[in-house]
């Protein structure tokens, strides 16, 4: 079986979140199961070609966007046994960032990723790759199914490749003005209410949802949620209509990267059999945060994009009672300016209780996962989430809202086999009550240690995810 992945993010080359992690771990796990895998990614300016050994293929491509032609080149890398081809373009990718500034994307993102998608289809033909599945990820690959069928330049292609459209986050849809439709060179039949047209504009993700052979969301609960008005981001009707080919597969994580027994980013290694290193990690984190080093003080961690989806507003309304409870809180992440500013203000106001690292740091993320006692994820919605999975592996107990992948992966402490604490209502009161429940259990060392060990023994490995995808690929091919 040959699978081609099309994505705008892949760790370690370029990533802003969970998409990049999945596109690193899943292809490698599939390769280990005997699947032939090829990945395609834009060659962004920020990608270190020398560090990762990315070299040119001596192959030029010329891609039409409407009546204009754009030139690019193809580069290649072998990383952990997986081949990745990079699409280079001076016009579209030689600029800072992946999508633009943190709070404002590039105005030509539709054109940038249209060029990328057309280049992928061109290379599938030029190189006679003949994949069994083209696995498209999020809106930046949403037009691939239509381009495979109708062609990239107005000449009918009649592509017979099976396609899978994975929804990593339905909120990001790749809208563009209707005036840009001509650039796709797709037939007029592709710009209707049943296809790309959406409230008078182009919706790239919708194109993938209606054009792909099958669809999946990154957790079973999210696959159900996206069919509802509350979580469907206006596309719930489209997904309800295609529910017969809509599936849910929970993301897994790479335990080679996230393993407290071997992690080189943390001060001390530890396991469920020997937790002594966990205490050392906590003391080191308290010290670097400027907190009082005390094993009995609960240390809360949060690693997040600072956007409304992540429930930062609930933290706004809970920060004072959290501090008054005596707990310590360390926050790592970047995002909306007013959230970043608020976190800095909390750290200035309560330096003995709050530390805010407004940055992206892989090392600090590992140290928070290892050093914290509890991990906060009060998300408004969460397609899958991965930090709760990392946290459980590190014996850091998650406090989460019961939505999406958080619902699927965390079992509440009140239930048999509990691994964390969950709340349902999206409110600061419900969030803090849940946290209070967790802190009450934390005060009982024996019960807490039992909870930690149970959480650490959970298995959300990428191998399970790969097996689920292989089963889905076979089903798609069989259909």
TrEMBL record:
<feature type="domain" description="Glycosyl transferase family 1">
    <location>
        <begin position="294"/>
        <end position="449"/>
    </location>
</feature>
<comment type="pathway">
    <text>Glycan biosynthesis; glycogen biosynthesis.</text>
</comment>
<keyword id="KW-0328">Glycosyltransferase</keyword>
<keyword id="KW-0320">Glycogen biosynthesis</keyword>
<protein>
    <recommendedName>
        <fullName>Glycogen synthase</fullName>
        <ecNumber>2.4.1.21</ecNumber>
    </recommendedName>
</protein>
<dbReference type="GO" id="GO:0009011">
    <property type="term" value="F:alpha-1,4-glucan glucosyltransferase (ADP-glucose donor) activity"/>
</dbReference>
<dbReference type="Pfam" id="PF08323">
    <property type="entry name" value="Glyco_transf_5"/>
</dbReference>
<dbReference type="Pfam" id="PF00534">
    <property type="entry name" value="Glycos_transf_1"/>
</dbReference>
<feature type="domain" description="Starch synthase catalytic">
    <location>
        <begin position="2"/>
        <end position="239"/>
    </location>
</feature>
<keyword id="KW-0808">Transferase</keyword>
<comment type="similarity">
    <text>Belongs to the glycosyltransferase 1 family. Bacterial/plant glycogen synthase subfamily.</text>
</comment>
<dbReference type="InterPro" id="IPR011835">
    <property type="entry name" value="GS/SS"/>
</dbReference>
<dbReference type="InterPro" id="IPR013534">
    <property type="entry name" value="Starch_synth_cat_dom"/>
</dbReference>
<comment type="function">
    <text>Synthesizes alpha-1,4-glucan chains using ADP-glucose.</text>
</comment>
<dbReference type="InterPro" id="IPR001296">
    <property type="entry name" value="Glyco_trans_1"/>
</dbReference>
């Amino acid at each position: 079986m040959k699978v081609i992945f099309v994505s705008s993010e892949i760790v370690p080359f370029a990533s802003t979140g969970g998409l990049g992690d999945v596109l690193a771990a899943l292809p490698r796990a599939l390769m280990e199961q005997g699947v032939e895998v090829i990945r395609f990614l834009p060659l962004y300016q920020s990608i270190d070609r020398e560090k990762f050994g990315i070299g040119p293929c001596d192959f030029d491509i010329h891609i039409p966007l409407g009546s204009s032609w754009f030139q690019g080149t193809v580069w290649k890398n072998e990383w952990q046994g997986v081949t990745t081809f990079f699409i280079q373009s001076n016009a579209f990718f030689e600029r800072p960032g992946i999508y633009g500034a943190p709070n404002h994307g590039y105005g030509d993102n539709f054109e940038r990723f249209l060029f990328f998608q057309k280049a992928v289809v061109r290379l599938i033909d030029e190189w006679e790759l003949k994949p069994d599945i083209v696995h498209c990820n999020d809106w930046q690959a949403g037009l691939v199914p239509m381009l495979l069928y109708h062609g990239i330049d107005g000449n009918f292609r009649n592509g017979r490749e099976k396609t899978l459209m994975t929804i990593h986050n339905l909120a990001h849809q790749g809208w563009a003005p209707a005036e840009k439709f001509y650039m796709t060179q797709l037939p007029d039949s592709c710009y209707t209410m049943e296809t790309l047209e959406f409230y008078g504009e182009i919706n790239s993700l919708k194109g993938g949802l209606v054009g792909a052979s099958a669809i999946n969301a990154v957790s079973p609960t999210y696959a159900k949620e996206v069919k509802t008005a509350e979580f469907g981001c206006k596309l719930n009707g489209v997904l309800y209509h295609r529910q017969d080919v809509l599936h849910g597969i929970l993301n897994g994580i790479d335990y080679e990267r996230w393993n407290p027994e071997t992690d080189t980013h943390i001060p001390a290694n530890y396991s469920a059999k020997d937790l002594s290193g966990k205490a050392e990690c906590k003391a080191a984190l308290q010290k670097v945060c400027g907190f009082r080093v005390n094993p009995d003080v609960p240390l809360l961690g949060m690693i997040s994009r600072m956007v409304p989806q992540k429930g930062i507003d609930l933290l706004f309304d809970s920060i004072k009672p959290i501090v008054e409870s005596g707990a310590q809180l360390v926050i790592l992440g970047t995002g909306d300016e007013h959230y970043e500013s608020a976190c800095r203000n909390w750290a200035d106001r309560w330096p003995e209780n709050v530390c805010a690292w407004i940055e992206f740091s892989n090392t600090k993320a590992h140290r928070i996962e290892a050093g914290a006692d509890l991990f906060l994820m009060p998300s408004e919605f969460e397609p899958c989430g991965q930090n709760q999975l990392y946290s459980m592996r590190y014996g850091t107990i998650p406090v989460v809202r019961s939505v999406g992948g958080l619902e699927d992966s965390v079992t509440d402490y009140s239930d048999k086999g509990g691994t964390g604490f969950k709340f349902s209502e999206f409110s600061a009161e419900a969030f803090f009550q849940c946290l209070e429940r967790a802190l009450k259990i934390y005060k009982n060392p024996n019960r807490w240690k039992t909870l930690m060990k149970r959480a650490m023994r959970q298995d959300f490995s990428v191998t399970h995810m790969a097996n689920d995808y292989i089963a889905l690929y076979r089903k798609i091919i069989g259909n």
